[in-house]
Amino acid sequence: MSDRGDESGWHDLGPEPEPLAPELEERVRAAVRDLPPSRPDDAFRRRVKAQFLTGDLPRVLEDDAGHAEPALPASTARPRRLAKLPWAAALLAVFLGIWVVSSEPSQTPTWRLAGVRGGGTIAVDGRPVEAEGPDALEDLLVPGARLRVDDQVGVDLAVKGSVLMRLEPGTELVLPAADEWSVRERWSGELVAGEVLVATGPEFPGTVLTLTVPGGRVAVTGTAFALTRIPDGTCVCVLEGRVELTCDQGTTVPVESVGRRVVTRGSTVSEPLEIGPPERGKLEALLAEGWFEPR
Amino acid sequence: MTAPEEKLVPPAEASAPALSETDLERVRARDPQALGALFEAYFDRLYAWAHRLLGERSAAEDVTQEVFLRVYRGAPGLDVTRDPWPWLVSITVNTCRDWWRSSSRRLERASVSLDGDPELPRDLPSADRGPSGDVEADERARLVQEAIEDLPEAQRTAVLLRDWGGLTHEAIAEVVGTTPVAARKCYSRALAALGKALEGRIA
Q1: Taking CA atoms, what residue in A is nearest to B151?
Q2: ipTM of the modeled complex
Q3: From the DSSP assignment, how many helices (H) and strands (E) are in chain B?
Q4: Which one, A57, A252, A267, B9, has the greatest CB density within 10 A?
Q5: Which whole-number Å values give the CA distances from B121 to A58, B53, B57, in the listed order?
Q6: Which residues of A touch B97 (CB under 8 A)?
């Protein structure tokens, strides 16, 4: 993977703009410096603090599949959201309650460091860790953490018996976390930049792993595949098994064994193509390492 | 890389009690009292950051709540030998990026079926910007905030971290996970765009 694109906007390679006149620059900078800080609403602050101390804070941002966390109980939810609930919500809440207590929720995946190749820095939620210090890195591998490996280092991460993810140099990825409200074991993460190779193991069946990628989402139920960030999209390559690729506009197509498809923003999906030799070679090498075979 | 050493504090909130290494050990163990101390030390500042980056109170509340959820989840991995502030700012900036991304997904869907939804972030009431009672200062702050909100997210982040937070380009690079050169260029572009937008409009 050589072209990682730049979704973040931090790596614009165009020419630098003309500098401002010193007097104007100082006025602009002073105006930004003087912006007043704002204070949070007291009731909001109290609620968040109480839930933070007990570990009961619910997610409020949409997950990678585009679903928001279910509404909070009436005593803690924000009024602006509650006001929009129809009366039938009470019935739904009862149904959800039964659903949740009668089913096993998704278990949080425990990510472990399975290997480091090369040397350099790995940033976890912006905190740099030297690749030579694996213990420090492993402590930070919490689901939902954002990893960025620099251009000289690759990292293998695993959930024992279930999944191995190989982050190629220069990759940025949000570590899959459990969708705690899903009855089925469901983990969701995101590829932001670079390339990740994924292989699933014998304990994976029954689990759904979803990775959001530029241009869509890839849902996996058991396979070996590679996702490669390309300019304005993603190349999805499958060596074994099959994945479901859902583009941003909602269309879902399969990517079959020994095949690949390319999805771009604006959600054009290519016809099925044969997997490219580079990705095929990498995936075959990954499987040949026998990660999930008895040792 | 080294931790940013300069202040990263919105101007009017420059002093918060630092947590000791012992306190941070207890945060790692998710001791409620220590979590409370962490919350009191940083919540208001992180909220102010989110509000300034996003420009909308309800979005800032969503993001700040998500930040503290991530802090709770990440607490066992906290490095107690380091000031947690850069880590917290990184989480906040990353969460804002996630919010922008999920917001743009919402907007894409909204363009098909939800035109005019009042909760979408294009409707930004001026009261969100914290009137001070000084009409001239409020107007200036409004103009500056609007100009900042017109910037692409990376430039917005760069200019606020640099000038509102007082970070060096090296520290910004560490917080957002980029290189100092990229951080500096991004900041230069932000400053040029702000100069163009505000020239003749601010005294």
Answers
A1: A9
A2: 0.80
A3: 8, 0
A4: A57
A5: 21, 13, 10
A6: 8
pLDDT grade for B169, boundaries at 50, 70 and 90: confident
**Residue A240 CB contacts under 8 Å (≥ 6 apart), including other chains:** A223, A224, A257, A283, A287
| CB-based contact, B65 to chain A, within 8 Å | yes
Chain A residues whose CB is inside 8 A of the B90 CB are: 125-127
Q: Which of A239, A233, A174 is nearest to A209 (CA)?
A: A174
Q: Is the pTM of this model over 0.95?
A: no
Instruction: Report the greatest alpha carbon distance in chain A.
Output: 69
Rg (CA), chain A: 22
Give tens-digit pLDDT for A39-70.
898 889 999 999 999 888 887 775 443 433 33
Which element (helix H / strand E) includes B74?
Answer: helix B57-74
pLDDT tens column, B105-152: 455 444 433 333 333 333 333 334 445 556 777 888 889 999 998 998
Residues of B within 8 A of A40 (CB-CB) are 43-44, 47, 60-61, 64
Cα A195 off chain centre by: 13
- The maximal CA–CA distance of chain B, rounded, in angstroms, is 54
Distance CA B43, CA B88 (A): 10
